[in-house]
Amino acid sequence: MPNANNDSLTQSPTNELSQVQRRAVSELLRVSPVADDLARRFREAGFTLALVGGSVRDALLGRLGNDLDFTTDARPEDVLKIVRPWADAVWEVGIAFGTVGCRKADFDIEVTTYRSEAYDRTSRKPEVSYGDSIEQDLVRRDFTVNAMAVALPEKEFIDPHNGLEDLAARVLRTPGTPEESFSDDPLRMMRAARFAAQLDFEVAPEVVTAMTEMCGRLEIVSAERIRDELNKLILSDHPRKGLKLLVDTGLAALVLPELPALRLERDEHHRHKDVYEHTLTVLEQAVALEAPRDQPGGGPDLVLRLAALLHDIGKPRTRRFEKDGRVSFHHHEVVGAKMTKARMTKLKYSNELVKDVSKLVELHLRFHGYGTGEWTDSAVRRYVRDAGPMLERLHKLTRSDCTTRNKRKANALSRAYDGLEERIARLQEQEELDAIRPDLDGNQIMEILGVGPGPQVGKAYKQMLELRLENGPMSHDEAVAALKEWWAAQS
Q1: How many CB atoms lie within 10 A of CB 150?
Q2: Which of 261, 276, 198, 186 is nearest to 226 (CA)?
Q3: Where is the HD domain positioned along the sequence (predicted)?
Q4: ∠ CA 71-75-76, rounded to 5°
Q5: Residue range 419-429: average pLDDT?
Q6: Per-residue pLDDT tens digits for 458-487
Q7: Alpha-carbon dihedral of residues 182, 188, 192, 194, nearest 10 degrees?
Q8: Is 187 within 8 Å of 229 (Cβ atoms)?
Q9: Cα dist from 66 to 49, 137, 441, whole Å
Q10: Distance from C-alpha of 281 to C-alpha of 325, rounded to nearest angstrom
Q11: Per-residue pLDDT for 387 more than 70?
């Protein structure tokens, strides 16, 4: 695989490059049957095709999946003519931006026409114009490690911006000046933080400087695009790294201002912990509690990670210095839940996701009333009922929220929560807590009381649910007697 300068990809100036190149050869051999077949079809139609961007980067890192990105000099309408007879499925969702998607066997493929795109300073959408050369296409890419290509089917390696060296050095630079790159698409500033978190790379100093000086440009980017980048960062292997970069450059002040606001000034007696660092630690500990990717339902959990990141955002608004010298944050979980809902709504998250994360934020302190097991069975039932389907996530968030360096205190909290989980498990086995309902349903209530549908039935149902939570299951006769006794008191 020669590169644009006719140097063999397997000839290496350093051991690191040699290892990178061997990985690339292995990965490209795996996808060659599909990639070469598609490339021949483009060549027969008079066009060129190259594997590009993240696909080349991931091949060099030995992590190329089944999502393949290609670039071509063919216009979108010509790409459609080529791939339709060949692919198992074709979609045109991105065709306005020059991208045609298709599926072939196990591979999801995107083919994008050479292009350049830039933002009007008052527009939220990029203006797309097509280019005529792969060099023109690569210079508009976000970072040098994403500005490499492999021309097919001859497998010529094209690296005009020394992306291979930056990949070996694990550093993020821009093909041109970072100012030009971020002016073209301000979202690239967030991508720098995202790739730092995903790849565990360092961001070049001149790139960090440009991010800091130009962070205000992010205001023209739509909330949906910002949210999607933020999600990718949060779901990465090293979210702390990316989040710190957002905070340090000022980008977080625009995207998630509640995060830098956690850097509360500590009084001279250090009577409360650094909430910002605590939050990042809680996030890391929550990540460590996620089930492995190869287990059912395992892998990165966006709901849990967002809840860990936002669980204390109510503290700045509720901080009080008490007369006895203590610092308090009374009801910060309630305030934080409202702030979480507002911020996530502004970032265009789904209503379901907003509801789930807000609930976890609101409930994250509930366990601290448990003490050493003083809760009654009724209190345990209410804990389970209030958490609902978020119970397992609440377990993980509560455990993650312990960041004390006092091992005795940490062990005591862990044992107490072990005890709570054991009690929940026993009650669930005995009472089916996950589907807790009153011992009488609405139809039975109407029949027993001799009333039709109306507000009285709702009140009676709520009363029976309270009795169920307080006392556990009752027999049918006991439930009927309790309902009649309550009804008589209402009359």
Answers
A1: 26
A2: 186
A3: 275-436
A4: 85
A5: 84
A6: 888 888 888 877 777 788 888 888 888 888
A7: 160
A8: yes
A9: 18, 23, 51
A10: 26
A11: yes
Bigger pLDDT: 100 or 268? 100
| Statement: residue 8 has pLDDT above 70 | no
Please name the helix (run of DSSP H) or strand (run of DSSP E) that holds residue 448, with its range, or none: helix 442-449
Residue 43 CB neighbours (<10 A): 14
Handedness of CA 79, 106, 70, 203 (dihedral sign): positive
DSSP string, 292-358: PTTSTT-S--HHHHHHHHHTTTTHHHH-EE-TTS-EE-TTHHHHHHHHHHHHHHHTT--HHHHHHHH
- Which ranges constitute the DSSP H helices of 366-441? 377-387, 391-400, 407-431
Closest CA to 335 of 348, 316, 350: 316
**How does residue 269 score in pLDDT terms, banded at 50, 70 and 90?**
very low
CB 116 within 8 A of CB 129: yes
Q: All domains of the chain, ordered by start, with CATH?
A: 1-165 (3.30.460.10), 170-255 (1.10.110.30), 285-435 (no CATH), 442-490 (no CATH)
Under a CB-based contact definition with an 8 Å cutoff, are residues 339 and 258 in contact? yes
pLDDT tens digit sequence for 392-406? 999 999 999 988 888
Locus of tokens 């021949």: 40
> 187 is written with which tokens?
């979202």
Spatial neighbors of 168 by CB under 8 A, at least 6 apart, are: 14, 16, 17, 20
364: Cβ contacts below 8 Å, ≥ 6 apart: 307, 311, 333, 394, 397, 398, 401
* 117, 106 contact by CB (below 8 A): no
In 10 A of CB 79, how many CB atoms? 26
Q: How far is CA 308 from the centre of its chain?
A: 12
- pLDDT in the model for residue 97: 85
